[in-house]
Amino acid sequence: MIKIIFAYIFFIFQCFGNYVEFPKLYTRAEMKLISKNEFKQILTEASNALPLKKNFPPQKPGEVATIRHEWKDAGAALHEIAQIIKVNQHHTTSGLKFLRNCAKNRRIRTEFAAICLTHYSVFYKTHNKGKINKREFPQEVVNLSSFITD
């Protein structure tokens, strides 16, 4: 009887206690098979995960910087989108549109808008899509992104 109770408790914790829905890591093979609806859901979840400036005011001078756990999820989601659009050409247009809008959005924390612009810029450079008009984007985002892309 005790074994059954332990097995039941173990099962409950496995199903509910450690349930991590976001972000899901895809293999390259899975990325090639992602449906339009599934990719739309990935974009929605990424958009919802992006930290907004109003929720996280700037640090005061001398304050110790902290990286919040949910920020790691947002960064992973942006990287996942960048990987999917490289592997699955069916989602390139909507993925690039998402990254572009993210980079232009002044409500998103600058660090994350810069990550979006970086992924957007790298895709354009590696696929010879032409030059990006950096005047479309907030200057602080361009400055932060340029450390990687220039």
Could you explain how this protein is built, in words?
The protein is mainly alpha-helical and 150 residues long. It is 63% helix and 0% strand. It has seven helices and no strands. It has helices at 2-17, 28-32, 36-49, 69-87, 92-104, 110-126, 139-149. Helix 3 packs antiparallel against helix 4 (69-87). The radius of gyration is 19 Å and the shape is globular. The N and C termini lie far apart (65 Å).
Write the layout of secondary structure elements.
Elements: H1 2-17, H2 28-32, H3 36-49, H4 69-87, H5 92-104, H6 110-126, H7 139-149
Helix pairs in contact: 3-4, 4-5, 4-6, 5-6, 6-7
Shape: globular
Radius of gyration: 19 Å
Succession of helices and strands: HHHHHHH
Q: Taking all residues together, what is the mean pLDDT? A: 82
Straight-line distance between termini: 65 Å
Structural class: mainly alpha
- Tell me the strand percentage band: under 5%
Main sheet summary: none
Number of beta strands: 0
Number of helices: 7
Low-confidence stretches: 5-21
Percentage of residues assigned to helices: 55-70%
Keywords:
150 residues, mainly alpha, 7 helices, 0% strand, globular
Summarize the model shown.
This protein has helices at residues 2-17, 28-32, 36-49, 69-87, 92-104, 110-126, 139-149.
